[in-house]
Amino acid sequence: DAGITQSPRHKVTETGTPVTLRCHQTENHRYMYWYRQDPGHGLRLIHYSYGVKDTDKGEVSDGYSVSRSKTEDFLLTLESATSSQTSVYFCAIRKTGQGNSGELFFGEGSRLTVL
Amino acid sequence: AQSVTQPDIHITVSEGASLELRCNYSYGATPYLFWYVQSPGQGLQLLLKYFSGDTLVQGIKGFEAEFKRSQSSFNLRKPSVHWSDAAEYFCAVANTGGFKTIFGAGTRLFVKA
After folding, report:
1. I want to staple A91 with a disulfide (CB 3.0 to 4.6 A). Which of A9, A23, A72, B38 is the partner?
2. Do the beta carbons of residue B19 and residue B87 sit within 8 Å?
3. Using CA atoms, how far apart are residues B90 and B36, in angstroms rounded to an integer?
């Protein structure tokens, strides 16, 4: 258990509304990630963070923004949700230090439906 | 930038048969390579990883994978599949240092009795 909590776990919203997904970790790891999972595409990296206020874009960042004001929280925001953003969103952390070589630990996912 | 290709969208094997899932990657430097497994409705769990040393790596649940630099491959194998192995399998590559990980599209494994 990597101490990752995603909220909400399920959300249905309408096109054009803002949505924020939250990822919370309890172990103070530096690196945090947001991925989306869609059939036929596997997991695609949206944004990642390598520290407080330090973030970078991934493969599919258009339409998404992130913020990390505290080590433990990494927020993913859809400013104006579209149907193409219907997906399952996974947060992940990367543990560093001895014995850890880049593997990711995932939250349980947040299922977002945009109508 | 790195990329990953998993050529097989789905594979069906009989219980007790051997399994090989293919993975090819593209990355200019020494990659960090991973296999993850996802059961329905669950998050991803690490099966095994490679970042240096012996090119044949052992993982959990009886899985192994071999890194072949000349072929840019990191295929996953298991000598005898169990029904509980039915899941989706993802190959992933991270850049040197391992802080940015890209996943393949996944291979769904079906196991028939």
Report:
1. A23
2. no
3. 5
Q: Which of B43, B90, B100 sits opposite A108 (nearest CB)?
A: B43
C-beta atoms of B103 and A42 within 8 A:
yes
What's the CA gap between A86 and A13, in Å, rounded? 10
**pLDDT for res B57:** 95
* Per-residue pLDDT tens digits for B71-102: 999 999 999 999 999 999 999 999 877 788 99
pLDDT at B104: 95
Asked if pLDDT for residue A99 goes beyond 80, the answer is no
Size of interface A-B (CB pairs under 8 A): 61
Average model confidence (pLDDT) across chain B:
93
Q: Return the pLDDT at B72.
A: 94
B contact set with A (CB within 8 A)? 6, 9, 32, 34, 36, 42-46, 49, 51, 90, 92, 94, 97-106
Q: For residue A18, give the 3-state DSSP assignment.
A: coil
How far is Cα B107 from Cα A113, in angstroms, rounded to an integer? 24
Which residue in the set A41, A48, A108 is minimally distant from B100, CB to CB? A48
Q: Which of A85, A78, A84, A107 lies closest to A4 in space, CA to CA?
A: A107
- The answer for residues whose C-beta is within 8 angstroms of residue B60's C-beta and 6 or more apart is B46, B47, B48
